[in-house]
Specification:
DNApol_IV; DNA-binding; cytoplasm; magnesium; Dna Ligase, domain 1; alpha+beta; nucleotidyltransferase; globular; about 375 residues; MutS, DNA mismatch repair protein, domain I; DNA polymerase, domain 1
């Protein structure tokens, strides 16, 4: 751990979209609310805690949510309202620190090693933030306080909903030891199974294995696992993180073959290009060089293809043409059907530096 540990807070709004709906419509309070469009292809955006008792979770197919909880009240999402509340919450964060790293509309990391408010501790800062959110938005938030980001995120989930949990520097190793390895960031079901083959079920088991042995088995990720088992994470809070990708995707009402999805690719390319243009016209303008195509098969396997042309895409038409060419590179049976397609733009670079490089290459004959 650093000699002077950072003080990091992870704030996570409780059942955010569903809570906004229950706040704004008193008739929904205390009832199982599912934020989703109805339909065979729809997925759950959020579920109230009353609905979660029945096993309803975000990203679950809406039809399954309805089977699990027949009495659920389905409410179509209203992202304009959710974004407005999110801005309110961000304004509360900004009273305490400029080091804010939003992860989504409903969660963020804050570095409160030093603050504007001069409160006596990170715990006091977290309490002040949660209190202001409750008073000003009539919503609740959970928070975790820890010496680094990954521990703060684990802590924020520890006493949900409407809870606060603190992991102090001298508690880190003891806190982590009994946790299942699946609680560590980046350890999904596949990695968890591979670790189980080595007899590793808990963080304490992982810590007992030599770092070199982990690195020999899993490469650089093995060394990272060893660091996480000791509570080491040097990733800093990054305010105003640069955009990595803009995209648009759509789930079909009925599964389609590759030959049938071109109109959808072209429509989504227009949406992705519109999002790109907003990024390219801001005060810190950035432009994308890579086109990405995403496909999800009827049995939920995800495929991605990407291409970086020598000249960056200059219109939605060019994006669509590249995405369609990527579709033709998918080596799958012609009769295989797909339930989702997405088109994205990635490989963002600073617009001014990109223009300067282009001018230089043109001047010396590399066009």
């Amino acid at each position: 751990m650093p000699s002077q540990p950072r003080k990091i807070i992870h704030v996570d709004m409780d059942a955010f979209y569903a809570s906004v709906e229950q706040r704004d419509d008193p008739s929904l309070r205390g009832k199982p609310v599912v934020v989703a469009w109805r339909g065979a292809r729809s997925v759950v955006c959020a579920a109230s805690y009353e609905a979660r008792k029945f096993g309803v979770r975000s990203a679950m197919p809406a039809v399954r949510a309805e089977r699990l909880c027949p009495q659920a009240i389905f409410v179509p999402p209203d992202f304009t309202r959710y974004k407005a509340v999110s801005r309110q919450v961000r304004e509360i964060f900004a009273r305490h620190t400029d080091l804010i790293e939003p992860l989504s509309l409903d969660e963020a990391y804050l570095d409160v090693t030093t603050t504007h408010t001069k409160l006596p501790s990170a715990t006091a800062t977290a309490e002040a933030i949660r209190s202001a959110i409750r008073d000003e938005t009539q919503l609740t938030a959970s928070a975790g306080v820890a010496p680094n980001k990954f521990l703060a995120k684990i802590a924020s989930d520890w006493r949900k909903p409407d809870g606060l949990f603190v992991i102090r520097p001298n508690q880190v190793e003891a806190f982590l030891a009994p946790l299942e390895v699946g609680r560590l960031p980046g350890v999904g079901k596949v990695m968890e199974a591979r670790l189980a083959e080595l007899g590793i079920a808990t963080v304490a088991d992982l810590r007992a294995l030599d770092a070199l042995a982990l690195e020999q088995r899993f490469g650089r990720w093995g060394r990272r696992l060893h660091e996480l088992s000791l509570g080491i994470d040097e990733h800093v809070v990054q305010p105003d993180r640069p955009t990595l990708q803009v995209s648009a995707e759509d789930t079909f009402e009925s599964d389609l073959t590759l030959a049938e999805i071109e109109p959808h690719i072209r429509r989504l390319a227009e949406k992705a290009w519109a999002a790109h243009q907003r990024e390219a016209s801001g005060p810190h303008a950035r432009v994308a060089r890579t086109v990405v195509l995403k496909l999800k098969t009827s049995d939920f396997h995800t495929l991605t293809r990407s291409f970086t042309p020598s000249t960056r895409p200059g219109s939605s038409q060019e994006v669509a043409d590249v995405a369609c060419a990527l579709r033709d590179r998918v080596e799958r049976p012609a009769d295989l059907r797909y339930r989702l397609v997405g088109v994205g733009l990635a490989g963002f670079v600073d617009a001014d530096s990109f223009a300067a490089q282009s001018d230089l290459f043109g001047a010396i004959g590399f066009n």
